[in-house]
Amino acid sequence: MPAIDIYGDFMSFGDNLKRLRRDRSWTQGQLADEAGLRLSHIPKLERADSDPKLSTIYKLLNALECSTDTLLMDADQVGVDGRLKASLERLNGLPDVHKCVIIDMIDAYCFRNAIKGHFKADNKFKLMLFKDMPQGLVKPEELDGVIEE
C-alpha cells in the first residue's frame, strides 16, 4: 500500500522530488540543468512514469543538496520521526533569520505543551514557577521586510 502523508497525499519518490525542487523555486528545466539531466526526464520522474537509475539519483542528490533519506523517503517506512528529520533538513537552505523564526516557533510550541501539563482538568493551576521562559532568538525589528503579512 502506498504511504500517505499527514495531508492525505501519496508519498513517492516523485512527490519528494517535486517538493524539493519547489523548495528551491526551481522549474523542471532548472532542475534538469543543475542535475545534468534531460528536461523530458524530470516530469516523468515526478509523475512516477519512470524509475530512476542509480546515476540519476546521485545527480539529483547533488543538485538538490539533500540526503538520500529526504529524496527517497517512504512515509510508511520512516514514520513521523523520519518525516520530521526530512522537514528539518529542508530548512537548511533558508536564511539564518528564517531559521531562527522556526526555532522560536518550536521553542514556543514545546513550552506551551510543557506548561499545559501543569493544569488540572478543573483548570486549577498547580503551583510551579517558570523562570526560564524562552526569550526567542529573533527580535521583532529583525523581521521587518522578512515575513510578508
Could you characterize what this model shows?
The chain is mainly α and about 150 residues long. The chain contains 7 helices and 2 strands; from the N terminus they run E-E-H-H-H-H-H-H-H. Strands 1-2 form a two-stranded antiparallel ribbon. A hairpin with a 5-residue loop joins strand 1 (about 5) and strand 2 (about 10). The radius of gyration is 20 Å and the shape is elongated.
Gyration radius, to the nearest Å?
20 Å
Distance between the termini: 40 Å
Major β-sheet strand ordering: 1-2
Helical coverage, percent range: 40-55%
Measured by DSSP, the beta-strand proportion falls in under 5%
User: Mean pLDDT score, rounded?
Assistant: 77
- Poorly predicted regions are 1-10, 126-133
Produce a short descriptive summary.
With 149 residues, the protein is an all-alpha fold. It is built from seven helices and two strands; from the N terminus they run E-E-H-H-H-H-H-H-H.
What is the topology?
Layout (H helix, E strand, L loop, with lengths): L2 E2 L5 E2 L1 H11 L4 H8 L5 H6 L7 H11 L3 H5 L2 H16 L5 H21 L33
Antiparallel strand pairs: 1-2
